[in-house]
From TrEMBL:
Domain FAD/NAD(P)-binding span(s) in chain numbering: 3-282
Protein family (similarity comment): Belongs to the NADH dehydrogenase family.
Domain of life: Bacteria
Gene3D superfamilies documented for this protein: 3.50.50.100
Protein name listed in UniProt: NADH dehydrogenase
Pfam families (UniProt xref): Pyr_redox_2
Source organism per UniProt: Sporosarcina ureae
Swiss-Prot/TrEMBL cofactor(s): FAD
Lineage: Bacteria, Bacillati, Bacillota, Bacilli, Bacillales
Length: 355
């Protein structure tokens, strides 16, 4: 049997499974998926879990069942590329012929003192649960700081405002305006929502230190009861330990077939891949589609296409609570109730397609 090993049950590897597990899968292919949980987590919805507006069941999707698929629950300790095996924390060693690394990312604290020790996270389902428990325990009038005004920070701030109108929420943005790389109409819509709903956006911020209940922004100090960190991501230790070419952010450099150039049987999908686009669930899925094409050609002994198609993204969608949203699709801006309905519909379709 030829062994395909998938590390991580994220968006990229779920798309790979969705495309492979059908009647076209060769009978001599054995697929093993390894993850710390026995389900796929909807990471794009962790902000709602942390805010307490959805339950665990709404951000979990079952992993497909197939006679040629084995699912292993475990923590990955080391990837041994030369030996073609992966070691798990419990001592298991999993051999492979082809490997897809889709381990996702962790918070990037940018060497800010105290950030790792004194902030909450929404990077995993477990950390999002703990963030919810902490925020749930805050009293009336408590102050929550959210460091990072990207999509995750914006959605968390707005969702938390709807679930806890009694809290004071401060969103710290390094930029002069929200979503500065996108049209000003989009930026102004989000800004106006925050003004109307009394979420304070601290523009041009630079968090230099985090204390137990205090944030240091430039020369100012801000008292806080809890801080959630949404200010960037980076690969974890398992990827850091790999002796292969990486970019300045520590992400793995790939060839056009999403392979590690020095190990053509190793593919990388998702947040840890060095691509021209910013990491996203959509990008991981597009990658997954192309990796399936390459795998099928490889298994059939066919030559790979000379040029892989460009990775094309459709845009992005964001929510502002349960009733408002914003989207940037095909260079067009959509705001308000329609954008929120579009995002809800996309989430429903994703769950439906994944069973």
């Amino acid at each position: 049997m030829r062994k395909l090993l998938l590390l991580g049950a994220g968006y990229g590897n779920m798309r790979i499974l969705l495309r492979l597990l059908n009647k076209e899968l060769p009978s001599d292919i054995e697929i093993t998926l390894v993850d710390r949980t026995l389900f796929h987590s909807l990471k794009t919805e962790f902000y709602a879990l942390a805010a307490g507006t959805v339950s665990d069941s709404e951000v979990r999707v079952a992993i497909p069942v197939h006679e040629q698929l084995k699912v292993v629950e475990g923590e990955i300790q080391e990837i041994k590329l030369d030996e073609k095996e992966v070691l798990l924390a419990d001592g298991q060693a999993l051999a492979y012929d082809e490997l897809v690394i889709g381990l996702g990312s962790e918070d990037n604290y940018h060497n800010v003192p105290g950030a790792a020790e004194h902030t909450l996270s929404i990077q995993t389902i477990g950390k999002s649960r703990r963030t919810y428990q902490t925020l749930l325990g805050l009293g009336d009038g408590a102050t929550v700081g959210i460091v990072g005004a990207g999509l995750s920070g914006i959605e968390l701030a707005s969702e938390l405002r709807e679930s806890r109108p009694d809290l004071k929420i401060k969103l710290f943005d390094r930029s002069p305006r929200i979503l500065r790389d996108f049209p000003e109409r989009l930026s102004n819509f989000v800004k106006d929502w925050f003004v109307q709903n009394e979420v304070e956006v601290v523009a041009n911020s630079n968090i230099t230190k985090v204390g137990e209940h205090i944030l240091y922004n430039h020369e100012d100090t801000i008292d806080v009861d809890a801080v959630v960190w949404t200010a960037g991501i980076k690969p974890g230790k398992v990827v850091d330990d790999l002796v292969i070419q990486k970019d300045r952010s520590g992400r793995i450099v790939l060839n056009q077939y999403h392979q590690v150039p020095s190990y053509r049987n190793v593919y990388v999908v998702g947040d840890i891949a060095a691509l021209t686009h910013a990491p996203s669930a959509q990008l991981a899925e597009v990658q997954g589609e192309q990796i399936v094409q390459v795998l099928r050609s490889t298994w059939k002994g066919e030559p790979l296409m000379l040029e892989m198609p460009e990775l094309k993204l459709k845009g992005f969608m964001g929510s502002l609570g349960k009733k408002q949203g914003f989207a940037y699709l095909a260079d067009r801006t959509v705001t308000g109730r329609i954008a929120r309905l579009m995002k809800s519909g996309l989430l429903w379709m994703y769950k439906w397609h994944n069973g």
